[in-house]
Amino acid sequence: xxxxxxxxxxxxxxxxxxxxxxxxxxxxxxxxxxxxxxxxxxxxxxxxxxxxxxxxxxxxxxxxxxxxxxxxxxxxxxxxxxxxxxxxxxxxxxxxxxxxxxxxxxxxxxxxxxxxxxxxxxxxxxxxxxxxxxxxxxxxxxxxxxxxxxxxxxxxxxxxxxxxxxxxxxxxxxxxxxxxxxxxxxxxxxxxxxxxxxxx
Amino acid sequence: xxxxxxxxxxxxxxxxxxxxxxxxxxxxxxxxxxxxxxxxxxxxxxxxxxxxxxxxxxxxxxxxxxxxxxxxxxxxxxxxxxxxxxxxxxxxxxxxxxxxxxxxxxxxxxxxxxxxxxxxxxxxxxxxxxxxxxxxxxxxxxxxxxxxxxxxxxxxxxxxxxxxxxxxxxxxxxxxxxxxxxxxxxxxxxxxxxxxxxxxxxxxxxxxxxxxxxxxxxxxxxxxxxxxxxxxxxxxxxxxxxxxxxxxxxxxxxxxxxxxxxxxxxxxxxxxxxxxxxxxxxxxxxxxxxxxxxxxxxxxxxxxxxxxxxxxxxxxxxxxxxxxxxxxxxxxxxxxxxxxxxxxxxxxxxxxxxxxxxxxxxxxxxxxxxxxxxxxxxxxxxxxxxxxxxxxxxxxxxxxxxxxxxxxxxxxxxxxxxxxxxxxxxxxxxxxxxxxxxxxxxxxxxxxxxxxxxxxxxxxxxxxxxxxxxxxxxxxxxxxxxxxxxxxxxxxxxxxxxxxxxxxxxxxxxxxxxx
Lengths: 200, 515
Fold this sequence. Notes:
B: 10 strands
């Protein structure tokens, strides 16, 4: 008399359909809970263009060539003046590595590192903060118009060798490549370093 | 508008040259606008752009939320918050999918964050302003003016963001369309003005405005369908009613009856929804207390009350005489008309003598004999006229109820009567109608939510522990628990938990957009 099973079923079907439609917004779209953008992946796609727009003076953009086993892209923030992304590790913990690009950075206290520079014109500095019980390290890659700060902060007991895993998977995208792509594809200018001056 | 969004979105997403076309089109427009740049105009545009800042939008939202809380307009508040959440989710997720860069080939003059399309600041301001207009501004001239102001504000922000080259024209346009369209649809669907008007006169949101066109429709409906001429429509007893709009109708004299009053209850879809949520909530909290299955339409809703009214009347229980149902708007609004108890006063304000006590107990006995339970015995539903007790509001009446439910009716009636007298006196009278065992069972069953909230409040205010007094007089019985577990309760509880978890995940996974 009161309750029609058809109506209940219909309402549940609608609720499930709405839920399914919203499901991607629950985190399965590749974006994380604190993410502005997708992964910055060294392919000069739109995400990297946005990143270059954020720090127009920088001639390089830090990016991820391939995420190593046990690591995952956890989030990013891109806004004018700053590009930042971070990775989680199943051994080193949440936000174990944080990579930040700004126009300048404070390298006082850091010493010039011996690590191999993957691109010309990049000078590496390192500032070990702690070795035990938690490994913690600040690293700076300084180049014309930009500075990349790497903050490694591992969970207690996690091996410092995990840094080398990440070293293999982080790279740099030259601004010139992105400028060329924008010019060829759209006939437009990616304003900033190494590009013709923009109006305004 | 929504079709436009879907077409453009699909075109750009699945046909990449279209995206490039849009990019070139947008950047050409921006280059043209950049020629207008001057120092003073840039300063003005930076100020205008501040309207789209997180601080401004949060400020506006908090003000709107506080006003809605102060005026207790919960429905408007939830629709407002819901539309903000939906707009934020959609714009944020679309921006991740589309992944569009900021304008190229032109210097960007203001701060920004994330991808550019759709413009989150424009969408946020649009949904906030349109939400404010529909939740806070009364319909009519004020809202019309507000819409113009909002239109100008959005257009100004749109132009400022293009001038400063933080958004492309299509980014800002897309954002404005999403913000305005979702807020409009949300308020028109879930808080339509004809049912939930924005007023500052007080009263419950569940009560419909019966002036104007609805008043005329009620008069015409009563005349056409019941053959009675309505002279006046007056809302009555609004403070005691949240489930309908109670009305007193003044009826013109006819050949066989003088001018008189009738009582009517106007029901709309929102009352059915409210009843549905109320019952779902009770099912989750207490299980199968009684018949908690919700109604599916206003028609069924009003049909059921008409049926119970006639049933009670047929059994000779002193309830209002039924006059029938009036259809105001098919499937949307119906009104049930019944006798108006002129000169009757609520039991809480009336003198109680032994006759009234016996009336109350006799009514419960009649209900038991007829195989009925009233299920809402409380002071507001018991009236006294000329020393006789009358029962109103038979909407919750159940046919062939469980013995537990019938026992609760008895306990509730005795408690109502004792509030105005004392427990021993009521108990003594009750023994003339019921056995000691039956009374003992009644007070073993009457626990917590089994009694209506108004009765519980009255008992609390009274100060005496009437329940314990009655239990002390009646034979000892093991308390009857109100918690009942069933598959339905488990399913509903699981659904509610999953729904809550889903909502939480939506917020958490899109936190960047909200924060």
